[in-house]
Amino acid sequence: MNKRALTLTVVANITSNYGEGLGNISSVQKVFKNGKSYATRSRESLKNAIMVQSGMYDDLQTSVDKATQKFVSKDLNVTNCRALEGGYMNTTGNTYIRKSSFYLTDAIACDDFVNETRFHNNLFLASNFAKNNNLNLQADAGKSGLMPYQYEYDKTMKIYSITIDLEMIGKDENFESPEAGDKEKADRVNAILDAVENLNLVVKGNLDNAEPLYVVGGLIDRKTHYFENVVKVKEDKLLITEDLKDRIAKGCNAALLEGGNFKNEIEIKNEVTTTSVAKFFEGLRKQVNIYYGV
């Protein structure tokens, strides 16, 4: 089998994005399917977090020419700039477009949305302002900047997939620059894997651990989210199907973060061969190094 891509499907506890707000009320982003609403975190948000935490954006340069965009030139392109590996469109002078080397799906909640509203205020800051300006907080709430606010909260098990085109890494057909070396290609893919393994997200000022609770995948011959349609969770139980087991048997692996995250943890370990999350990613990084010959 000619392996051309690396694909993963991940189950993790992930907070949702916030969509449109009304006044001081913020609501989480949702999708509607099967007659129900499901909280989501967008693929764009996940991709940005992965690019930042992997260090891939460390050499990012931006330009402003009617639009804010990634800076690209014959001297600075994907072959020598990791930040451009996620794709770009630059309209400065000639328009250059280079698709991303990896793709993500939205992270969609496993169970339908249950509204949990949180209420907050800036009482301490308003009290401090009132004290320093000889105001009565009750009588002069407006002048003191006292502002109550509320938002929907969601941190639930969500599923997302990521697929990396191994043949595209380090290449830029818009320019005649020599492609990145094999070690650099392997380092870029492994940096993305490191970020997925240790992913954390910031929302409403809170840092949330979004590491995989269950992850399945590997190097395959198809450039697609191979496990997207067979990894399902219902009421904190991973559904063990024949299709899931058949696809794992075709050269892929699975990992489980033990500790009671899934109600059927024993069933998962009995029905599907799993390893620890750390060993799973360690094995993947070795496969990537072998693929690129480093």
Architecture overview:
The chain has 294 residues and is α+β, with helices and mostly antiparallel strands. It is 24% helix and 33% strand. It contains 7 helices and 21 strands. It has helices at 43-53, 123-132, 141-144, 182-197, 242-249, 265-271, 277-291, and strands at 5-15, 18-22, 25-28, 30-33, 36-41, 62-65, 67-70, 88-90, 96-98, 102-104, 107-109, 117-121, 148-152, 155-165, 200-203, 206-209, 212-220, 233-234, 237-238, 253-256, 274-275. Strands 1, 4, 5, 10, 11, 14, 17, 20 and 21 form a 9-stranded mixed β-sheet that branches. A 4-stranded mixed β-sheet has the order 2-3-13-12, with no helix packed on it. A hairpin with a 2-residue loop joins strand 18 (233-234) and strand 19. Helix 4 (182-197) packs antiparallel against helix 7 (277-291). The longest helix is centred in the middle third of the chain and has 16 residues, at 182-197. The relative contact order is 0.20.
What's the layout of helices and strands?
Blueprint: E1 5-15, E2 18-22, E3 25-28, E4 30-33, E5 36-41, H1 43-53, E6 62-65, E7 67-70, E8 88-90, E9 96-98, E10 102-104, E11 107-109, E12 117-121, H2 123-132, H3 141-144, E13 148-152, E14 155-165, H4 182-197, E15 200-203, E16 206-209, E17 212-220, E18 233-234, E19 237-238, H5 242-249, E20 253-256, H6 265-271, E21 274-275, H7 277-291
Parallel strand pairs: 3-13, 20-21
Antiparallel strand pairs: 1-14, 1-17, 2-3, 4-5, 5-11, 6-7, 8-9, 10-14, 11-14, 12-13, 15-16, 17-20, 18-19
Helix pairs in contact: 4-7
